[in-house]
Every structure is written in C-alpha cells, then in structure tokens.
Amino acid sequence: MKKVKPQFSQINYKGLDINILVEPKFLGYSFHYEGNNYGSKVPITTSKRQELLELSFALCIQAIMSYEELCKKSQ
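Below the sequence we write its predicted structure tokens.
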C-alpha cells in the first residue's frame, strides 16, 4: 500500500502562521501560540467542490476565532 504524505499550506493572520493540512480523508488546521499547539481536523465526507469550500471556510473561521479567544485570555 502506498503511503500518501499530507499536504501543508500556510496563511498568515495578524502575524500568526496558520497551517492548513490536507490529507486524503481529512482537512484541518493548526497553529502555535505562546508555547502551545492548537488545531482541529475533520473528516472529508464529500467530493462536492461547494461542500469542500464551505468546510474550508468554516475551519478558517474556527482557527481565527480560537486565536482571538486565546489573545483575550492572555491579556
């Protein structure tokens, strides 16, 4: 069985690098903040382009909201 390597991309939001992970059956994000790693990964249950786009945006929004909440707590 051939092992497939995950693909990574990275976006920057207010100085924070958010890693985007794409695996054959999962989509997720992670980021490093004040010495800790945070993130989430969800299974891909569709091949429809619109649903994949919606899932991607939902994860992006979740990453930003998580980061902003962590910033509030550290103040």
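The chain is about 35% helix and 40% strand.
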